[in-house]
Design a protein that fits this description.
Distance between the termini: 63 Å
Strand content: under 5%
Helix content: 55-70%
Largest sheet: none
Mean pLDDT: 75
Oligomer: single chain
Number of strands: 0
Number of helices: 3
Low-confidence stretches: none
């Protein structure tokens, strides 16, 4: 492409959806909906955060034992030569 082709492309600005009128309406609607959802469900979300560390323990146990080869005990041949 020559220099003239590039200058022609810079003159034409392509508008994205978010810069259009419909995009602005969507952004406004999403902000209002997000604010209402946050204020109405804040107590439920904060109450669930209390239990997340307790629920993470069994998941971590399952996933960490899955790496070692599953059925075998700790320190057997299935651990890939790692120290116990």
């Amino acid at each position: 492409m020559s220099v003239q082709d590039h200058s022609h492309d810079e003159g034409e600005r392509r508008h994205s959806f978010l810069n259009s009128r419909a995009g602005m309406v969507f952004i406004g609607f999403a902000l209002i909906a997000g604010t209402l959802l946050f204020t109405e469900h804040r107590a439920h979300v904060l109450g669930a955060l209390l239990w997340l560390p307790l629920l993470a323990c069994p998941l971590m146990h399952v996933f960490m034992h899955h790496r070692r080869g599953g059925q075998g005990g700790h320190g057997q041949q299935g651990d890939g030569g790692r120290a116990p």
